[in-house]
Design brief:
The chain is α+β, with helices and mostly antiparallel strands. The protein contains 8 helices and 11 strands. Helix 3 packs across helix 8. This is TupA-like ATPgrasp.
Amino acid sequence: MTLRAAAGRALRGVPSVRRRDEVTRALRRDVARLTREVDSLAAENARLTQQVTSASWASHLPAVRRQFRMGMKLPDAGTMPLTRIAAKLANYRLAASHGVAIPQVHAVWDALDEVALDDLPDRFVLKSERGSAARGVLPLVREGDGYVLADGTARHTPASVIEHFARLEEVGRAVGPFFAEELLSDGSGRALPVDVKIFAYYGVIGQVRLRASDAHGSRSSRKRFLTADGEDLFADADTSLPVPHLLAEAVAAARTLSLAVPFPFVRVDVYDTPQGVVLGELTLAPGSDERHPLEHDQHLGFCYEHAQSRLLQDLHRGRPYALLYGDHPLDHAPRAWHAPGQAEVRWSPPVR
């Protein structure tokens, strides 16, 4: 060991020098941490600046939700297309008129005290006409004198089924009428089929989101994002969720239904079943808040803004501000699917 090395070792053994070295190392760690934070904040600032100065779906979506909530509170809102889209049975009638398959509806009741569970098949879904996410939806399988959720996570008695909806109705999270429909399967053996959620911008498909949950109402789920052609949008795709074998049919249905509503955006939820594509619901203001890469967020933002422009052009050309129904017969549809006094409008858009 050289004299200098020996002296350095001796000095490091001195408390004041050792303390200085510890402080120096701590300061360097702080500098490195703060540098990372500054870089992260700079990136976030750049992202937010880009949202302000260019198209951004992340910026538009909160406004879409606010407009939806305000529209639902307007006088005579019940006659507006906005409120018709919020009604599940109205969605079914609209879809059926365009030849899009819908679940078999077993029964419709105006009020909870009219619901007759004993008259239903052993497997069914009980729903309220209005209610978001998993609220107002119970997929049930008869077991003995009661029922079990289709995923097996909870049991219900006939009374507790009604109580579930009564609690939601009391706080405005479920609104009648109430109805029972077939419990769909995607043929994979899953208790609950994969949701295929198609983000449609007045005839243009921005993305397709696959979502699978092992438990009804669970906030945790597996997701995969696709283009309209079935290509993965992101490198970290969850390939355990297969691309729907009827994706082209699902996308075509979503395009048709998005042009049938007078809004620049609608999310069309469908199920890919062995019997074909079946509508789940239409949603104008989805509650999910996925943060997408900047380039894709800008793409969806552009889709929304371009859809607004094309919709305004069609309104100028005479498109009625109404839900546009197709020509497929609706003889099989219960009267409860249609609001009395509301005309079913038809209009053919000009060829662009």
